[in-house]
Amino acid sequence: MEISQLMPIIIIALILIAIAILFTFIPVMLWISALAAGVKVGIFTLIGMRLRRVVPNRVINPLIKAHKAGLNVQTNQLESHYLAGGNVDRVVNALIAAHRANIELPFERGAAIDLAGRDVLEAVQMSVNPEVIETPFIAGIAMDGIEVKAKARITVRANIDRLVGGAGEETIIARVGEGVVSTIGSSDAHTKVLENPDSISQTVLAKGLDSGTAFEILSIDIADVDIGKNIGAILQTDQAEADKNIAQAKAEERRAMAVAQEQEMVARVQEMRAKVVEAEADVPLALAEALRSGNLGVMDYMSYKNIDADTDMRDSIGKLTEEDNDDNNPK
After folding, report:
1. What is residue 196's predicted lDDT score, i.e. its pLDDT?
2. Phi, psi of 28 (to 5 degrees)
């Protein structure tokens, strides 16, 4: 085939390729859908989205949805929120839900809530349908030392104006727990808490615990109340055990001191006996010296021996008498 014959085919192929590229780069079907829905979007606007690396259907479809719902939302607002990393479809759904529920929610606030990491649609739904938060068992000790455990159910509603920068559910639970513990602790007896558990919810609710949070507390209901340990009795028992251990330690210290003193006295007795034995050993030497020097006569020495013998005999008789008494009076 000649070149002149191939030219029409080449031209048609190039036209088809150009049309395919055009339809790939420019979402013509999305543009047609927008025009059919009554949303005026220029074809060059879609091209600009492609150049700005914005997925057109992520912006145009929510725009069509918002237009059909009667919301005044601009393309630039949705595109800016998409470029900021937000979820455009979720924000538009939240705006539609708020509009249907007569809740004032501007697009800027909804976008800020979404960019803050909160689910703006869930927040709007919670504003319409309050949520119940159930706390775990919270233990407090009454003045009589009895532990009281209470479980509370908190009915909250999302506060749209405080969603950005407001504390979450954990803060609500912590504050309610603190209020329950302080209320139980200020009760004179645990029986008062059991008789009127509603006093806990009334006291806690009056403290304004939703201040600075993203929620508005509607009610606090005590779901369950239970009795725990007798903490006062346990503390008294522990104190008595500690006092007993201290007394035993002091008694053991006194016993050890008495034993040491006794051993000291035994040692002193032995020392005295040694001195007596030493003194007795000097007696014969003194007698011999007295005999040599003439200060003691023979008759005097014999009288001394007789007295010594009589003393030994009396000592022997005394020991025998003590042994007979022991035999006659056995223990």
Report:
1. 79
2. -65, -40
